[in-house]
Structures
1.
Amino acid sequence: MATFLFDRIVFGPVNSRRLGISLGINLLPSDRKWCSFNCIYCECGWTDRQPFFSGGFPSGGLVKEELKKRLILMQRQGKFPDTITFAGNGEPTIHPEFGRIISDTVELRNLFAPEAKIAVLSNGTMLDDHSVFLALKKVDQNILKVDSAREETMRLLNQPGDGFRMDRLLDNIRRFSGKFVLQTMFIKGMIGNRSFDNTSAGELHDWLKLVEDLNPEMVMVYTIARDTPLQGLQRIAASKLRDIASMVSRLGIPVQVSA
Ligand code: SF4
């Protein structure tokens, strides 16, 4: 297993399959992964199950300082990011100052890279916190993960922490009234002696109904590209992802495939 952690707050820029030249921001500690999910395919490895403590996060002030320094440097070099992307070692919205950090990022983006979009990759589990909801409303690409319309499959793939309720997550996503990007990882494999495949006909039928119901401004479909903590997972063929994308297009919703 060769999963990895980001060792700094601002990283890259990297050429992203989905986001172009992406300047990354990691709001999580650099020495462990913290997330409210424990996805079997997570590039950062398995979730550290130790309780969260706010002292492990970089302060909002430090995040602002680091981002400002990097944007000034990029501006001097004439190399602007297409996207400033909150991702990193887990779920970014867990950061206790997430709302303030997004406001600071909007301010810095407007000053130093006005063409850049701000994207947040989130699993949506912190949306009960109103400040997180308001912050995600401010960003250009509010990218929310829903890997299956079926709770059983979703629990298998994402392994959420205690207290998670899928109906609550979906209700919270509906509060964006379609102003979000739905991101789905398609994958198949075995967990123990149990097989799963979220591209089966039944799964896709239910997922498409959910897509239609949530009516996002865009759908991103993708499959694994790097090592995963659970061994033996299988990528989905590019042709299958394109078929899925066609089904989404027929709903009148833009779709992006990363194969
Ligand atoms: S939600 Fe994202 S960061 Fe969290 S476990 Fe899943 S893939 Fe990893």
2.
Amino acid sequence: MGTLGSAVLPLRASAGAQRTVELICRQAWGARNPTGDFERHRIRRITVHHSAVALRDNRLAPSRLRSHQAAHQDRGWPDIAYHLLIDRNGNVYEGRPRWAVGDTSTNYDPRGHLLVMCEGNFQEQRPSSAQVQALVDVLAWGVDRYDVGVRTIRGHLEYADTACPGRALQRRLGEVRRRVRERLEAGGIRLAGLCGEEGAARVDAIEAGKA
Ligand SMILES: [Zn+2]
């Protein structure tokens, strides 16, 4: 899909303690092409979401993403609603292009929001430590890349009448913001695309319960 663009460039190449997050490319998880036009936006804040579908067996994560995308496109949206997707083992997947406004069925305007979705229903289950760690890393990357304040990291329910991202994740966000600050002070995060055969191998490993 070529949507990674400059995102794969190191952000703080001089920082010794910089960490890398691997981003599984769209084609690797079997995303369909967008079915309509996107609206461009400039990211000013980051919003945390859940999928609202409980996920117990992480081997199902890639197929869940495919079904979310199909359901969202069936609503008439051009693509999966969210920009970055995180499974229970902390694998990170590329969603909708980040330059494009997300979609929502709730009463807020998603323009300017980078939408980060954690797979699961956190009204019914707790996020795993691997998932929260990946969330911290993705948010640290987003804060740096888009030059938004850590304070702009909020749960969806702070903008709209919704339970999203679920009680068990929402109550972690204070801790998450603190850990994002620590990660940025420690050197930040680089996002590296995991595409082609590498991306396909990672998705195979996830579906085999090995990643
Ligand atoms: Zn949400």
